[in-house]
């Protein structure tokens, strides 16, 4: 719960700015800069959707769902069920509002909680953790929890330790009192293995790693 409270204020204040990365409700210059500097964010969304097929036959857990860009798109494409969790109440409000507007409330559920506090009575075919492990100092308990909730596979992302974005991002978020953590490929392998996943595929996308993992007992 302590970690949840530490992150809540920052993400509550970032709702509009974060969502604009995907909605592209920005100036032409802002859109151009996003295409250049946030290319990997768009790539990981497209790849997640592609690797989730057949979406219609699967259930999903979106950890750190934000404004629902992954969750809602999966529901639009016919997912059996999508649960999104986030520590930001404002993010969850946006998700619920959009699900209601698009009449996909019957296949979506958005919950204000931290993954370590979340106690569902079910597991999910696919778990997604995009842009959430960046902000967790000790990610192993989170990864272990995700493994326990995953039936088929999970898609995760980790920021690259040595990239052109590392220092600027660390400074920018540090000024906003939001710690951010970076990883080597070797450290990711260690964490994923310790969490109980079996097959591990790591793809580098610019300043981030896109990771596909399968639990030891799928």
Structure, described:
This protein is of the alpha/beta class. The chain has helices spanning 2-13, 15-23, 28-37, 39-51, 69-76, 89-101, 140-149, 166-175, 185-195; strands spanning 59-63, 81-86, 108-112, 124-129, 150-159, 197-205, 208-215. The protein has a single domain (2-215), classed as Rossmann fold, CATH 3.40.50.150. Helices cover 44% and strands 22% of the residues. Helix 6 (89-101) links the parallel strand 2 (81-86) and strand 3 (108-112). Helix 7 packs across helix 9. The radius of gyration is 16 Å and the shape is globular.
Keyword list:
44% helix; 9 helices; alpha/beta; 7 strands; Rossmann fold; 218 residues; globular; seven-stranded mixed sheet
Write the layout of secondary structure elements.
Blueprint (H helix, E strand, L loop, with lengths): L1 H12 L1 H9 L4 H10 L1 H13 L7 E5 L5 H8 L4 E6 L2 H13 L6 E5 L11 E6 L10 H10 E10 L6 H10 L9 H11 L1 E9 L2 E8 L3
Parallel strand pairs: 1-2, 1-4, 2-3, 4-5
Antiparallel strand pairs: 5-7, 6-7
């Amino acid at each position: 719960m302590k970690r949840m409270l530490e992150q809540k204020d920052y993400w509550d204040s970032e709702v509009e700015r974060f969502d604009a990365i995907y909605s592209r409700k920005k100036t032409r210059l802002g859109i151009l800069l996003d295409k250049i500097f946030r290319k990997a964010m768009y790539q990981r969304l497209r790849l997640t959707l592609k690797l989730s097929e057949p979406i219609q036959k699967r259930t999903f857990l979106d950890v750190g769902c934000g404004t629902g860009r992954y969750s809602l798109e999966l529901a639009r494409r016919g997912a059996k069920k999508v649960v999104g969790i986030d520590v930001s109440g404002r993010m969850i409000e946006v998700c619920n509002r959009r699900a209601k507007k698009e009449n996909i409330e019957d296949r979506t559920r958005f919950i204000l909680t931290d993954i370590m506090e979340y106690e569902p009575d079910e597991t999910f075919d696919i778990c997604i953790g995009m842009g959430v492990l960046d902000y967790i100092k000790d990610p192993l308990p989170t990864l272990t929890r995700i493994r326990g909730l995953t039936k088929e596979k999970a898609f995760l992302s980790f920021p690259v330790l040595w990239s052109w974005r590392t220092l600027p991002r660390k400074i920018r978020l540090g000024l906003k009192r939001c710690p951010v953590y970076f990883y080597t490929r070797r450290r990711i392998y260690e964490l994923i293995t310790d969490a109980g996943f079996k097959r591990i595929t790591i793809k580098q996308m610019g300043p981030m790693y896109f990771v596909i993992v399968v639990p030891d007992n799928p």
